[in-house]
Design goal:
about 35% helix; binds coenzyme A; globular; about 210 residues; about 15% strand; 7 strands; alpha+beta
């Protein structure tokens, strides 16, 4: 795998509708606690249908991608108001999701950290993303970069871009959930200054940060 050196035309730009398939693909290829989730679930569309596509449907204006001029290598998706996202998800996304993923498929022989039953349950139950600290941390994000883009500073830049956009809109803070086994992401968020929220637990880590320093 060839790493980009960070100077060869990589840019952060707003998400466009034609990026949708690439975003879904990146989500899948980094969707198992940062590792490739391809073939891990009975349906490769399941992970993006839970953690990426509803976000770009609901808030395309808060999604950002890293582009090398030919393709998308990473993205950040998020919402400014997670309560509103939950209500929209119940009304619009969950019914579509239920048709696409009516029940778990046959076992794949791999044992994902998040079992297929649980992932489908989350897709069907948007309330799963509601946190007790929502009033103080109304926004939420997901960030995923392909391996060749990692470690070049784009994760930090994407989070800074999202925070600045939220601050402009008057949103005070954001939260995110991390897979407890995703050590790289846990180190990344700590390095960026995220702090653990009161309702966080070792099994379900939750972190927050203000949008403006
Ligand atoms: C986690 C992720 C978003 C980080 O983005 P990145 O571009 O690789 O990180 P950056 O290069 O911007 O690093 C920013 C800082 O975090 C630190 N950091 C990043 N990854 C780290 C790791 N795995 N271990 C320790 N520190 C790390 C960097 O050293 C850097 O510190 P510095 O700015 O003080 O030098 C990215 O690696 C990724 O997408 N991973 C796969 C998908 C994933 O796990 N997503 C998160 C799901 S919750």
């Amino acid at each position: 795998m060839v790493k980009h050196d960070g100077t060869d035309g990589l840019t952060i730009r707003p998400y466009r509708p034609e990026d949708r398939d690439e975003v879904a693909d990146i989500c899948l290829r980094t969707g198992a606690a940062g590792a490739d989730a391809t073939g891990m679930y009975s349906d490769d569309t399941l992970v993006p249908d839970v953690t990426a596509l509803p976000y770009v449907e609901f808030a395309p204006d808060l999604a950002f991608v890293v582009d090398d001029g030919k393709r998308v290598l990473g993205y950040l998706v998020g919402v400014a108001d997670n309560d509103a996202f939950i209500e929209w998800s119940k009304r619009v996304w969950a019914p579509v999701f239920a048709e696409r993923h009516p029940e778990p498929g046959p076992p794949t022989g791999r044992a994902p950290a998040i079992p297929e039953e649980l992932l489908i349950w989350v897709g069907l139950n948007p309330e799963a993303t509601r946190i007790p600290e929502a009033d103080d941390y109304p926004a939420q994000l997901h960030i995923n970069l392909l391996p060749e883009l990692q470690g070049l500073g784009f994760g930090r830049k994407l989070v800074d871009t999202f925070r600045a956009e939220l601050a402009k809109r008057g949103v005070p803070a954001l939260y995110l959930a991390v897979d407890a086994t995703n050590k790289g992401a846990l180190a990344f968020y700590a390095r960026l200054g995220f702090h653990e929220l009161p309702s966080s637990s070792p099994e379900h880590p939750l972190f927050g940060i203000a949008t403006a320093p």
